[in-house]
Amino acid sequence: MSAPPVREVNRQAIAVMGACADGSDLTILDVSDEYTRFWGGERDQWLGASPRIVGCDIENRKLLRKLCRALAKGELGDGYSLSGLDKSSWPLSANQPPMLIEWRVTAMTMPGYVERVLVLVQRDISKRVEKEAELERLATTDMLTGLYNRVRFDRLLKTELRRRHRYVRPFSLIMLDIDFFKAINDSHGHDVGDQVLAKLGQLLTQNLRKVDVCARWGGEEFMILAPETSLEQAVQLAEKIRCCVRQTRFSEAGQVTISLGVVEARLNESQKSVMKRVDDALYIAKEQGRDRVSY
Questions:
Q1: Which of 34, 160, 220, 264 is catalytic?
Q2: Residue 220 falls in the annotated catalytic set
């Protein structure tokens, strides 16, 4: 008989909180075992102690004062809820990864308690967030080059266009294409062609500024978004990249050259318009003999 599947532990901590007799502060009336695993200590040590909602002491005190005042004034009716995400939590030991805690405080009346209480529910969502981030990365990354893919670049371009229109800040686009890439595939095979694409992705990453965004647009075409960059500056950047590629030996493919088109976005220009202009600039570079920058 096969062993039963291992179920993922639902890391949910619960604490029941009530006000002190004089209404001066909130104290813990009861906690779950998971709450003690979140914050350390034993259950008996937490009873009557000040609750821990978030990891940061200053923010925790602010939250407790806010809830205590509202509870003392009778402002918290059944169902009242306050929630948040705690990014300041720390591991209880060096062997534990940091926690990202999602928390919610709800006012309710519970059997066994005379007064209305606040129920704190906390959940460690670190693994879920990591999985979501990894899925987002996979969905927006070109697997061959490690650069952004077309979908991700399209989103970033829309954002930059909005910023251009609102704040009148310059940015430029560079579109580049590997010259005679089909001949590389035909002569050396697609594996060598893939090596050329991957190597070019590395060169682009190494020769761009941290603020620049680079993506594989499709096939042998790449796009570079250069924020806060005028046309003249972008042309200089494009020329630097062209020379770098030309001077690099691409293993079995030998020397490889690229053609580049450069444009600066105009004020209130549409995405369709700026993309057509940079595509036209690249076409001119190829028509004029390749291995050059056109703008």
A1: 220
A2: yes
